[in-house]
Design brief:
This protein has about 450 residues and is mainly α. Helices cover about 80% and strands about 0% of the residues. Helix 1 runs parallel beside helix 7 and helix 5 packs across helix 20. The radius of gyration is 21 Å and the shape is globular. The chain starts with a helix and ends in a 13-residue tail after the last helix. The C terminus is likely disordered.
């Protein structure tokens, strides 16, 4: 639910504009506010789960997500809807790091890899099928008030999940609570906000008006690293132990790989929606169905990847990234050449290949990045990994959509040229991730069978 709500709402924006009687700029924060709040709380929520119990934070965050989903559906005005989405995004951001941390806590070795395989399948499906789900809901509920059901659908699903989580998640002992590093929370939150805000507001000129926030964000994040080092050196409780980046094998490279991959992976969905709906006149449902092969391939291969990653190690993500690059390059070429009424069919096989590769990236990279992280730090480490992915997603969405519109303006509305160049740019970001994976493979080599430092923590 939390990841689906990043992409599903984009399809419903025209319905929201009509239903609430507002402008496109008026509902921009419905999407950008959610993404911003989601990224801001990840590390802090992960640390709270480490200290106070992941089950407890999971249940509280899930209950809040359900309540704010209902509030968003009931919203009588744009202002109420934006506030509900900000709160919903914060609840989703609090929920997300508990997932990976609970897998770290409850599973070991090959079992953990398979669990992350299921997790990766969910990530791939929820990101890719958002437009399909949104289009289907609008088709059934109607264009005028259908957008409300995009939020209402979370309520029954969330209630079932809440009951099951309360019954099935073990009441494991919590870590040492210590003191929450409030200055660390403020420095990290302000730094991430400064980096993300211009990106999530890119469509309304955020990059031009707020460019100065990038150096401010870099300075705040540098200050955060210095403060966390000093806190750890004094024997305090840092929000995020930055020695994870230097002392834990595979963590820094996995964080960088995930960030680069999400630049390309997350940015292409908005470009596909613009191309199929605006350029070719597809309905939201037809547009979503056109990219379904990627989701199908990703889900299937992620389940298999969970079983292969313990044997193949980083080789699996190298192969997966190579397939994603090949699939995206071929998709860009086919959409450039295809007749409008056959574009979705022409690109289906290429998207399927890219999806198969994508299933061997997200969950295996999560497994390999977190495998040596001590369990007591699993929440904060998983939160930092997902924060990098959110920043990558924001960069990709802003850059690729901006490039798409720029090419349209320069070519006299040539949608084929715009979509192909944007997709090839996304492939370039994935090539950078591939370079990181190849470097780690040669620098570290294949992980020892069964080696798991976190298990001994």
């Amino acid at each position: 639910m939390s990841l689906l709500d990043v992409s599903i709402v984009s399809v419903a924006l025209p319905s929201m504009q009509r239903g609430l009687g507002t402008s496109p700029a008026g509902v921009q924060w419905v999407v950008s506010g959610y993404a911003l709040a989601f990224g801001l709380v990840l590390v802090t929520a992960g640390r709270l789960g480490d200290a106070y119990g992941r089950r407890r934070v999971f249940l509280l965050a899930l209950a809040a997500f359900i309540a704010f989903s209902a509030l968003a559906g009931l919203a009588p005005t744009t202002e109420v809807l934006v506030v509900a989405r900000l709160l919903q995004g914060a609840a989703a951001g609090a929920l997300a790091p508990q997932n990976s941390a609970l897998i770290q806590q409850l599973f070991r070795d090959a079992e953990r890899a398979r669990a992350f395989g299921f997790f990766g399948a969910v990530v791939g499906i929820s990101t890719a099928v958002g437009p399909v789900a949104g289009g289907a809901i609008l088709a059934v509920a109607g264009e005028d008030d259908g957008w409300r059901w995009v939020f209402y659908v979370n309520v029954p699903i969330g209630l079932v999940a809440l009951v099951l989580a309360a019954r099935l998640l073990p009441r494991a002992s919590v870590g040492e609570r210590g003191r929450l590093d409030l200055l660390g929370v403020l420095l990290l939150g302000a730094g991430v906000l400064a980096v993300l805000l211009p990106l999530v507001l890119a469509e309304s000129g955020g990059l031009t008006a707020l460019w100065w926030l990038f150096p401010v964000g870099a300075a705040l994040l540098a200050a955060f690293v210095v403060w966390e080092r000093r806190t750890a050196a004094r024997g305090g409780d840092p929000l995020l132990d930055v020695t994870l980046l230097t002392a834990v094998p595979g963590y820094a490279s996995g964080l960088l790989l995930g960030t680069c991959y999400f630049v390309g992976f997350s940015g292409i969905w908005l470009v596909f929606a613009l191309f199929f709906q605006t350029g070719l006149g597809y309905t939201p449902l037809e547009s979503g169905l056109a990219v379904t092969p990627f989701a199908v391939g990703s889900a299937a291969s992620a389940l298999v990847g969970g079983r292969l990653v313990s044997r193949w190690g980083r080789k699996l993500t190298v192969l997966g990234l190579a397939l994603v690059v090949a699939g995206l390059v071929a998709t860009g070429l086919l959409l450039r050449l295809a007749p409008p009424h056959l574009a979705g069919w022409w690109a289906a096989c290429a998207l399927l290949v890219g999806g198969v590769g994508g299933g061997w990236v997200i969950s295996p990279n999560t497994t390999l990045t977190l495998r040596n992280v001590p369990v007591r730090m699993a929440g904060a480490a998983g939160g930092a990994l997902q924060t990098g992915q959110r920043i990558g997603a924001a960069i990709g969405s802003a850059a690729l959509a901006g490039l798409f519109y720029l090419v349209l303006a320069d070519t006299g509305q040539d949608y084929g040229a715009a979509v192909s160049l944007a997709i090839w740019t996304a492939a370039g970001a994935v090539v950078v991730a591939l370079g990181v994976a190849v470097w780690e493979l040669h620098a570290v080599g294949r992980p020892e069978e069964g080696r798991d430092f976190a298990a001994a923590d």
